[in-house]
Amino acid sequence: MSTPPRVALIGCGRIGRVHARTLASRRDLCEFAIVADSFPDVAEHTAASFGVPAWTVDAEEAIANRSVDAVILASSTETHAPYIELASRYGKSIFTEKPIALDLESTERVLSAAANAGVRLQVGFQRRFDPGYAAAKAAIERGELGTLEMIHDVMRDPAPPPAGYLAQSGGLYRDMAIHNFDSVRWLMGEEPCEIFAMASALVSDDIRAANDVDTSVVTLRFPSGALASIENSRRSGFGYDVRTEIFGSAGALMVGESRDLPLRRYTSAGVTEDHQYFFLERFDDAYRLEIIAFLTAVRDDTQVTVTGQDGRAALQLAVAAEESLRQGRPISLQTTEVLYAQS
Amino acid sequence: MSTPPRVALIGCGRIGRVHARTLASRRDLCEFAIVADSFPDVAEHTAASFGVPAWTVDAEEAIANRSVDAVILASSTETHAPYIELASRYGKSIFTEKPIALDLESTERVLSAAANAGVRLQVGFQRRFDPGYAAAKAAIERGELGTLEMIHDVMRDPAPPPAGYLAQSGGLYRDMAIHNFDSVRWLMGEEPCEIFAMASALVSDDIRAANDVDTSVVTLRFPSGALASIENSRRSGFGYDVRTEIFGSAGALMVGESRDLPLRRYTSAGVTEDHQYFFLERFDDAYRLEIIAFLTAVRDDTQVTVTGQDGRAALQLAVAAEESLRQGRPISLQTTEVLYAQS
Amino acid sequence: MSTPPRVALIGCGRIGRVHARTLASRRDLCEFAIVADSFPDVAEHTAASFGVPAWTVDAEEAIANRSVDAVILASSTETHAPYIELASRYGKSIFTEKPIALDLESTERVLSAAANAGVRLQVGFQRRFDPGYAAAKAAIERGELGTLEMIHDVMRDPAPPPAGYLAQSGGLYRDMAIHNFDSVRWLMGEEPCEIFAMASALVSDDIRAANDVDTSVVTLRFPSGALASIENSRRSGFGYDVRTEIFGSAGALMVGESRDLPLRRYTSAGVTEDHQYFFLERFDDAYRLEIIAFLTAVRDDTQVTVTGQDGRAALQLAVAAEESLRQGRPISLQTTEVLYAQS
Amino acid sequence: MSTPPRVALIGCGRIGRVHARTLASRRDLCEFAIVADSFPDVAEHTAASFGVPAWTVDAEEAIANRSVDAVILASSTETHAPYIELASRYGKSIFTEKPIALDLESTERVLSAAANAGVRLQVGFQRRFDPGYAAAKAAIERGELGTLEMIHDVMRDPAPPPAGYLAQSGGLYRDMAIHNFDSVRWLMGEEPCEIFAMASALVSDDIRAANDVDTSVVTLRFPSGALASIENSRRSGFGYDVRTEIFGSAGALMVGESRDLPLRRYTSAGVTEDHQYFFLERFDDAYRLEIIAFLTAVRDDTQVTVTGQDGRAALQLAVAAEESLRQGRPISLQTTEVLYAQS
Predict the structure, then answer these.
(1) Closest chain A residue to the Cα of B204, Cα to Cα
(2) pLDDT tens digits, residue range C45-91?
(3) B67 — contact with chain D (CB < 8 Å)?
(4) Angle formed at CA A12 by CA A11 and CA A17, multiple of 5 degrees
(5) Does D204 lie at the interface with C, CB-CB under 8 angstroms?
(6) For the purposes of burial, counting CB atoms within 10 Å of the CB of D302, is it exposed (0-12), middle (13-18) or buried (19 or more)?
(7) By three-state DSSP, how is residue D94 classified?
(8) Rounded-to-integer distance, Cα D36 and Cα A165, Å
(9) pLDDT at C167
(10) How far apart are alpha carbons C104 and C315 in whole angstroms?
(11) Nearest-CA residue of chain D relative to C150?
């Protein structure tokens, strides 16, 4: 076993602190060397909480730091692309929260930078590391479902994000449905060849003002004839709703429906259970496991399993969904097959 | 209370016998006067089993019979239209299994005949009488969901029907999805204005040979901006799959997921429950309650709640779904709004 | 196939009408010849509702009626014993609601009368015919659980019965827990050898005034070393609660937990399902199937599967539970083994 | 906020490593100063994995170490009592895995030592910190259930422990059911006044050889008249089975039934979910939360919520259950009320 890699965490917000907890509790897999955050208080407090010896407000310095082997990018979206390019230049292993960038051009440029530098780049599609999704994928690969025929993939947030977030989010498809585009590609095991989007703005004036949509059904066709539908909403009225149904010739798998507490209440009004309210509760394990997988790949000098190409392929589907919405008709994806080829 | 109506049951096959059981056990609501089936053995056996005083192989005679007040049509699909026209001529109340007919022209002609004769005509969309669906509809009408935003309506048969049935079924949309078209219209409480269908033939050579599809996702847009998706398959790999998810601004309702037995098995391989295998188990109550509703309407001389217009509206959606499939693009339904107006 | 038996229904109350519905809808298995009820209106109305040609207020006349082959006793508890004796004298097949009688002496006398007359006598432990319980019993017999080790059998009523009923009910053990005594004996496949009861009166002053209990745990030991516990309450606070957990060396079976509607509500307060409120909903199928089993046994001249001996054995356990409560210690049942031998 | 306490972890086995993970990830609540294990490799490896600066094979040295404020005892059962006495002498805050000791005399002596030294002592009844149990307790205290009437508390291990463990375990009641004795006391909010145990040895020759039992039902009566039953087995045949049902005048709470994965499989054989196999999966959160509660109490200089008195009270019920088993009759606990008084 090689020496554990020295890691820098860039960004100590909500998701950054989740990753910090993982880094701090797996000293066998990493040396948690430095944290960076543009707010000095936040950086200092995070370092103190997790026993990290150094902190800085200068992310670029932390990335470039000679003693750092790997960086975890949990900073704001618009910093992902420049930080990946910087880390590539310095030969660091990179884990980045999704998205790499909000447009295809920047994404391509960043992927080239990483490829040319020969660094590993993992994208934070955490759902692939959720034990439920991972077990579903394994069952599909063992052939338990026979031939895949249909996937129905649902994602609803409990409530819409604030207007400030919406404005720079990239819209429903690049910000939210991108998780579904990744999971449908991954579970189906082939690239879609046709996409159609139908959507409305029902939830808030902010969303309408941003020319965005909040309620959407996307339909996808795959070369094998299998179909997928993706259902999104910015507001559920009841909590987080992430469920995926996978149908094959020999049966079906349903992922999701986790209860928050192992508790049921029986009253004259019925039997009530709670549900997980949001993504941090639902994907707690997944956020931990994706970092462990990344650290293990760095330590053992192996490939990561969720690549920059996966990030690009999901973004392409988001862009195509927007195009379908604009044109009011299905969009063929066949000519882009080459682009989807796994590197 | 008026005298219970005298009823003729036309067709003693699988579903006919289900209706016979209801008629025989509700002598307070009807006098079960006669059964007709083209096979004399079947007619005689049914009459004997349910204590019906008369039977015949001549359905038209039973319909025309002066002492009969109401007819239940459970005969084969192609007989529905002529029998409804005949019963209309004789002024009988009519309950017919769906569909009225497989094409819009015949359907229009039959509806006109019934309307001109001033007879009541109920169509067997039994799902509306299922206690689960009925409770969902009542909750929506009480405003429990706030504003409706999305419906996802699923229907999978356990296994494809025989080739003979497929050939004359009218295809996936007119034969199977027609139940979903009805339930989505009914639950949403408005008529759709746009429809898009994506489908494949994955299940059998018979279906491909019939130029039919077996795996389909239909997306619908409603004037309010609400969306619906309808998922169909001729083969589930595990049993009957009828589930409907209804999302509003204030929460969601999920109808379906009935277990066949109140029994769970715990073994080292996990916790296993069964599921209802097919429609007769799933909709046992609904088939009973729709007949009771019809008999009550006849006895009390009131309107039925699932009308011939409902049958036509669902068929129009099926036809439009086929058109979308043929053209590979969404179809606008706006110009047909007048047609959908409830009579 | 022999001629279907001619049947008299004695008692047209709540459960009597449930049986009437079964008799009316299975003319292939019986000729529903006459109904008796001490209230003439009730008898006449029941006859009219179910198409029964004759009715009477004189139960004894209906039982003695020469043309009647079988009687269904759904009259009040104190009439069961004299009517069984009368029906035995006239050689009729007998189905009786539980209990045969509230004391062991009368029960013995009645069983002797039926045995001497050579008539078949089925007791209404309907739970054995519930598809869930029947599937559990079949799984046990196939060896799916390995060696049986423990049963936990729960029965809670939604609310206590009226004081008038309580006074003549025979108390918690003879009236209510008797269903659990039967199901535990039946599922375990052996007779218990020791019993201990701990109980309180927590629910109502009526129950305390009647010197009865309403909240009870009974523990049973079986010769194999297997154990059972029976939990009873006259008031659940939420609805009917009938669940049975069966544990063996190779796994477990859980019977119960039926939802009334296939519907779940998702709101910000959680996910809510309803539950079946009382026994008529929970055991709707079982009440039908036990009558069908009885009619089939009469028609085919075979044995019934729930015998008078089963009624006696369950009553003996109720009496022993009361004795344990009185003495405050476990009671040995070993010396009564002979009594339990199936006839 | 005061300085976080310096903590020594004594014992780095299965549960010790679970606690180590918590200590390592909450540097805001503690300084994880030293680990001790009698196997030097294990101690060294644990220290390295979790970034702990010091390790030792000498537990007593670690406990006595001047710079240590608090000790976590996760060493073998027979060391708990002497280590608690030692830590008391040195004035350390103490968290100990259950049991304090296997006999009442040692337990009393140890409690006195801690009381005389004025140190806080928390016992590892982790179930109280499980979010499901904690929510149930909170609901009871808010009065959601009305008056408590009955508790049914189940605990089955997936498979019996090895013979070596059994021999020194203290038997089913002191080793396993002690968790149920604690949770029933805690949830009911009063001390039981009568106990009766019925049990068998069905699972293994080892258990019979040790004169122990493996299948047990214990019934408890409380002064209010409420009842409880506790069901234990050393072997479930399917996995870990920890469920608690709490019934009151206004409804019920059911704790338990956690799935391991949010995944259901639908096949022609039914619908299958998995379940949590053993206690480390089921109580993962609880093990973390109990340590956090302990560290918080130390840091803030407040009382712990699960005290040594709780450890003694549960042990007394275990001893009384054994006595009931020996005598074959219920045992009154009324005279011991004083002993149960919370300190």
Answers:
(1) A249
(2) 999 988 899 999 999 999 999 999 999 999 999 999 999 999 999 99
(3) no
(4) 130
(5) no
(6) exposed
(7) strand
(8) 49
(9) 87
(10) 7
(11) D215
Touching check for A200 and chain B: CB below 8 Å? yes
Give the strand order in the sheet containing D54-56: D54-56, D31-36, D6-10, D70-73, D93-96, D121-123
- Which residue among B26, B49, B251 places its CB closest to the CB of C266? B251
The DSSP-derived string for D112-127 is HHHHHHT--EEE--GG
What are the tokens at A335? 């000519």
pLDDT in tens, B138-163: 999 999 999 999 999 999 999 999 99
Cβ-based neighbour number of residue D109 at 10 Å: 15
ipTM of the modeled complex: 0.93
Residues of chain D contacting A136 with CB distance shorter than 8 Å:
263
pTM of the model: 0.93
Sorting pLDDT into bands at 50, 70 and 90, what band is C343? very low
Residue of C154, C236, C238 to mutate when probing chain A, most A C-beta within 10 A: C238
Q: Residues D217-233: pLDDT tens digits?
A: 999 999 999 999 999 99
Confidence of residue C2 (pLDDT cuts 50, 70, 90): low
Average per-residue pLDDT in chain B?
Answer: 94
The A93-96 sheet, strands edge to edge? A54-56, A31-36, A6-10, A70-73, A93-96, A121-123
DSSP H/E element including D226:
none
Task: Report the C-alpha gap between D39 and D49 in whole angstroms.
Answer: 16
b/e map B282-312, b = 16+ CB within 10 Å: bbbbbbbbbbbbbbbbbbeeeebebbbbbbb
CA distance C54 to B102: 47
Give the one of A236, A239, A272 whose C-beta lies nearest to C272's C-beta.
A272
Q: Is B330 on the interface with A (CB under 8 A)?
A: yes
What are the angstrom distances between the C-alpha of B113 and each of A15, B92, B103, B261?
67, 12, 16, 45
Structure tokens at A123: 């994208």
pLDDT attached to residue B237: 87
CA distance to A52, D322, D324, D332, per residue, from D195 (Å): 53, 10, 7, 7
**Banded pLDDT at A222 (limits 50, 70, 90):** very high
Neighbouring subunits of D (3+ Cβ pairs under 8 A): A, B, C
Percentage of residues in chain A having pLDDT higher than 90 = 88
